Amino acid sequence: MNAQPPAGIALSINGEATSIMAPPATRLSAALRDSLGLTGTKTGCDAGDCGACTVLLDGAQVCACMVPLAQAEGRAVTTIEGFSATRWGRALGASFLAHGAAQCGICTPGMVMAAAELLAETPAPDEAAVEAALGGVLCRCTGYRAITEAVLAAHRFLDAPPAPAPEDDAVGARLARIDGPEKLDGSALYGADTAPADALWLRPIRSPHAHARFRLGAAPPGVTLLTAADVPGRNGFGIYPHIKDQPVFCAHTALYRGDCVAALVGAREAVLAAELPIEWEPLPALDMAAARAPGAPLVHAHLPGNVLTTGRVISGTPATATHSADIAIRTGFVEHAYIEPEAGYAERIGDQIKIFASTQAPYMDREEVAGVLGIPQEDVRIIPSACGGGFGGKLDVSLQPMLAVAAWKLGRPVRAVYGRPESMAASTKRHPARIQARAGCDAQGRLTHFDFEGDYDTGAYASWGPTVAGRVPVHASGPYRVPAVRAQARAIHSHNPPSGAFRGFGVPQAAIAQEALWDMLADKAGLDRLEFRALNALRAGDTSATGQRLEHSVGLLACLDALRPRWRELRAAAAAANAAGGGALRHGVGVACMWYGIGNTGMSNPSTMRLSLAPDGRLEFRNGAVDIGQGSSTVLAQIAAQALGLRVADLHHINGDTFLTPDAGKTSASRQSFVSGRAAMEAGLALRAAILRRANAGPDAALELRQGVLLVDGAALALSETLHGEGSFDPPTIPLDANGQGIPYACYGFAAQIAALAVDTRLGTIHMQRIVAAHDVGRAINPTLVEGQIHGGIAQGLGLALMEEYIPGRTENLHDYLIPSMGDVPEIETFLIEDPEPLGPYGAKGVGEPALVATAPAIFSAIRDATGAVITRVPALPYRVLEAIARV
Amino acid sequence: MDRYFRPRSLAEALDILAEHTPRPLAGGTDLYPALTGAEAWGPRPALDWMDISGLSALHGIEAAEGGLRIGALVSWTQIATAALPPALAALQQAARQVGGRQVQNRGTLLGNLCNASPAADGVPPLLILDAEIELASAAGTRRLRLGDFLRGNRATARRPDELAVALHIPPPPEAESRFEKLGTRRQLVISIVMVAGLLRLEAGRVAEARIAVGACSAVARRLPGLEAALRGAAPGDVAGIIGGATLDPLTPIADIRGTAEYRLSAARTLVARSLGA
Lengths: 888, 277
Ligand SMILES: Cc1cc2nc3c(=O)[nH]c(=O)nc-3n(C[C@@H](O)[C@@H](O)[C@H](O)COP(=O)(O)OP(=O)(O)OC[C@H]3O[C@@H](n4cnc5c(N)ncnc54)[C@H](O)[C@@H]3O)c2cc1C
Ligand code: FES
Ligand code: FES
Description:
Structural class of chain B: alpha+beta
Shape of chain A: globular
Strand order of the largest sheet of chain B: 4-5-10-6-7
Bound molecules: flavin-adenine dinucleotide, FE2/S2 (inorganic) cluster
Helix content of chain A: 25-40%
Largest sheet of chain B: 5 strands, antiparallel
Number of strands of chain B: 14
Helix content of chain B: 25-40%
Largest sheet of chain A: 7 strands, mixed
Structural class of chain A: alpha+beta
Shape of chain B: globular
Strand content of chain B: 25-35%
Number of helices of chain A: 22
Strand content of chain A: 15-25%
Radius of gyration of chain A: 27 Å
Oligomer: heterodimer
Number of helices of chain B: 11
């Protein structure tokens, strides 16, 4: 009987005969990655759900994570590494780059290989064919539209000459992302793609209970057990300097399902197969409702009532309202679902530690690792891997502290890769919220007051809970003139997963309640819903509820103006469709607005960028901002080059390595274009000034780098030493007082979106038809990248609205937890409004988070328009939509 | 210690099953995800698999006994792209909605049946065709009606020493069937409810109605009461009859995807749509 592992499995990979020594049941993806080093094939779930591992098997697309190596024997496997070098591979690559179809890039190899199967048969496919062929690959960044466009157009890029350095790379140009090529040929290295050959494996051991005391047994021989006792420094980490409440390894009690209690380290197979005896004593677990009840047990003994933080904004006295409205809503946990699970390695080098991992915040990681090891921050080197999506979820450390402890203690490099269920159970989430809101307007429709009370389930540990509680009240009343605001948000501890940062920091949940009130008031006042918003919209010169006078760059009215023609057309089309009687389908159009403060709330958040020009003509750009797919590397390069007067192609990039780059702060709060962008501009201007001084040239002199020689107004300038230019920026803010008065942000992004859809009134399903989005971004440094952020935000907003709900223990994978697939995202039309922000680089503000906030409220507005149903339980799963319709 | 058998002939496979009872592995699109789920909260379980992909006897869709014989290694893509009678349209529509192309290219119809998920999309379209499963063991072969083969959530009548080798579809009625699938997103979605339906008209009346509903009971079910009530009806009365029917023997449960009442009401709507009413 042939039950023994065979000698080696022979197959052809990218046209070359190969033999792989691995057990026959080895997943083909693992064999490609681990045995052959072909890490272009990505692993996002090992369950067929994400398609990141898509390869061709005898020309047919398959998920390599579900193919036993034995079944590939004697067959031809094509991976991104092979395909990208072919004629069609180059064409698809060029088309993806031109369309901005790769953002973080982790889904890109899968998308390209799925397209490879299609294009081999159908060189010029239609949209339905693209959707059918690529529908098995999930993308969390792009909203899919750019990918569809790129595949549709790929044949036009066949045999195109390799792109020369693009001529137009100035601010405002649609420059292809500079880190794009390595994402398209599979060579970009993500957290799981590289580690020293002798690295040991670490497997975290996690609590399957929401709240439990435990006793650990002994690890099997050959495997090292790490526990709380092994943490050399502080056994705690957390976003806030004074709240390091999340242990690397729990000491004796786990506070949520997924809490880490220990780790096993050793040879890979041994660690994966090792059984660790644990005695669990489950304890009563609190959800938010139970945690708020009077006399509830305390999750953390020092926080009475389980309240972590309360944020409030109180301003003005309400005038009498003619019309009033109120609403109560509930939202669920939302998972970031970046397609790249957490992964990386740590290596001890003498008294220093080096960590290579997927992250959004290298400088915060450095601080946490230093604290946990009890060593100076200067001895911690964080090297961010290519980041396969973050959306706020990779701002907190995940595996960095435990890897550091293991590598420190064992003196060997140690690596870890989270599985999908582990990533989902362990990582932070969007806060579930219970919100009650009330508002009124006068007979003309002018808002009189807005009251908001929101409880946000912040889970077992603080993470970004205080940020959410602080940001929500400031934004709760939306981008509107509201004379009297009373808004309060509380972050409540429970035995749920820690809620952290997720695109919008609690604001999207608040916007759902607030925009629903506007629709009700508009109807009562007899006003068109868009005109109601225009009537009440903030304008330059207005004062916000925090007492901040908004002097510049308040482009909301311009957004609404841009949308108005579409609003009328789509409303007319919906009315006509409804009049024609569509059977079960009812058509509706909704609108919503948003604003979003760029950068930290009333807190310093500086960034520094550095440029240098060496005598040999090497122009270095030291940029510590992590590009998580949003395109900061490209945008900052465009800004720096523009300020300097040289070309983007002249720059040599040194990115996010805490030993080599200055602190750019974290990639969060939509701040990199604005804050780091301004720093990059200052750095560019500083280096330019240094050059002009050397050359004794006037301010308008033209610079050029030609084969390593610097030309100033056409004349070569020899440098004897390296010239430097450094720029820093910290947006001016004033901390909020007890009533939420102050200047929380230096500037705000504004947007308005329209959603057009049909509701199947028998099934409660929503058929999205169109989203039209107008965003005031100050200045679009790179319109393709800005549109990419808007599309991606819309897709996430759609997911929040209609399908995403994380339930611990129940939806810990990507088939029970649903994120939008290619077929879910409708046509998107964008209008970029450029109302320049004087503080920003060339007028730019941020767009990363604003993109998401308006989408869910616009969708709910459209559902109400179509059916009269008010959605109060989010996500609006089909059964909940029917329940809401039944309440009308 | 893992075991991975790779028989080269059916006889060899049946001997292995008789002696070692490993789990058959076809396309792996259920087995690998289940392994990932098992690994998530504990040590990696030992594998005990028999890879049946090398058994050439299990390939192909053939005409047989006036109907069709579908081999155990036939993939969803092969179902979707084969030229099949109109009564199998529901099966072909289901095939295009199982996962993405990657899953369709690898996953097998028989694996879907043997896996016996309540939400298996292959089941309703086959129930309305009165399909039978052929089980082989070293001791001989037997055939079971699909409804008898499926015993419950993840439970079948297959003995551990048996292999499902083929599916038999008796001569189908001359009418086009339709598949209706309800999920929370457009692609890659586990069904909340799915329905396969077929109406055959004779002389302007319903001569025969066949309806099966999935995900509304532990195993997908035919609706014999409603089928009988529709017999002889005028096409214009079909919607009304469905609207007033009791939908026995459906016993939906509530879960994260929907309440029991919702499932029942959605099933009623989808039954009507599957019959064009
Ligand atoms: C991303 C994704 C999406 C999916 N979407 C859907 C969907 O929408 N609808 C749906 O119904 N299914 C869906 N599935 C599941 C579907 O792919 C499987 O049910 C598939 O049809 C099983 O076939 P397989 O050959 O891959 O089975 P395998 O995984 O190889 O086996 C499945 C089970 O059947 C047994 N088995 C297989 N063949 C035989 C045999 N010949 N004799 C006896 N036992 C056997 C195995 O032991 C195992 O228990 C999805 C799967 C994935 C990964
Ligand atoms: S890793 Fe294979 S589908 Fe996700
Ligand atoms: S670009 Fe698709 S997941 Fe990031």
